[in-house]
Design brief:
The chain has 13 helices and no strands. The N terminus is likely disordered. The chain has one domain. The protein is mostly helical.
């Protein structure tokens, strides 16, 4: 009598009652994400930076208002002022985006993940979906709280604005969209680099170093290059009053999404070709 040979992987799939699908991979990535304390600590840091720094800036503005120069008052925007905390929050979100991928490479857990999902790409898409959705939810709540809290502080000098004012909803929700895109860009970079220190350094370089280098260029060059940098392009959506030589809000965000798409496509290519 002949004996059928069943591979360990196929028996495991039969045991769980089905094949590997993207929804199941997403469920697995969600379990990994929510069970890591560092995920929530980093998101909490991003929220505290968004709300806390925004409130601090509003308090400083109220205390300095009577001594501000006319040109400073002319460019004052209550909505922008209460959301300045995203400058710090983007760093926390970027770090977590890198860690979502490189954390598994550093521990070797990525081998188990890719063994369970041999096609590999669903792992990347699931990480991006889980991280993107969680980041969007957390940052949306944070920016709304920061806006409302900041306006309450500014109201003491009658400097506040309302959520229904022209452009304000775009700025508030645009800030959350900007932070989400930065996080997804970091996921792509983390997959490309596969090293935590290198990935974080790359993200910080894109967000902090490149804008400084652009400012050091001759003004004609800087004005042409600066609007298309990832941070400057995306910040157009999160800014109420556009400065000279900047892109329109949704155009700028489209440029940032282009960077995200390139990073994720590049990450998909190397994930398929490289060994774990």
């Amino acid at each position: 009598m002949s004996t059928a040979t069943v591979s360990p992987r196929s028996s495991t799939v039969d045991a769980v009652g089905g094949k590997v699908t993207l929804p199941r991979v997403i469920t697995g990535e969600w379990i990994k994400f929510r069970t890591l304390r560092s995920s929530w600590i980093t998101l909490l840091a991003a929220s505290l930076a968004t709300v806390g720094f925004g409130l601090l800036i509003c308090y400083v503005t109220v205390n300095r208002w009577d001594h501000m120069q006319p040109d400073e008052r002319a460019f004052f925007s209550p909505a922008d002022q209460s959301l300045r905390g995203y400058y710090l929050a983007q760093l926390a979100v970027g770090v977590l985006g890198v860690l979502v991928v490189t954390g598994e490479y550093s521990t070797g857990m990525i081998r188990a993940s890719l063994s369970a999902v041999p096609k590999r790409l669903p792992v990347l898409w699931a990480k991006a979906i889980v991280f993107g959705v969680v980041t969007w939810v957390v940052t949306t709540v944070s920016v709304v709280v920061a806006f409302l809290g900041g306006q309450a502080v500014l109201a003491s000098k009658h400097l506040d604005t309302s959520f229904s004012a022209p452009g304000v909803p775009r700025v508030v929700f645009g800030t959350a969209l900007y932070l989400t895109a930065i996080g997804l860009l970091a996921v792509g970079i983390g997959t490309l680099v596969r090293n935590t220190a290198g990935g974080i350094a790359t993200v910080f370089g894109l967000l902090l170093v490149l804008p400084v280098l652009a400012e050091a260029l001759p003004s004609s060059w800087g004005d042409a290059i600066s609007p298309y940098l990832p941070s400057h392009a995306g910040e157009s959506l999160a800014t109420l009053h556009q400065e000279a030589h900047t892109l329109a809000p949704w155009t700028g965000y489209g440029v940032l999404c282009g960077y995200v798409a390139v990073a994720l496509v590049g990450a998909a290519v190397v994930l398929k070709r490289r060994d774990a």
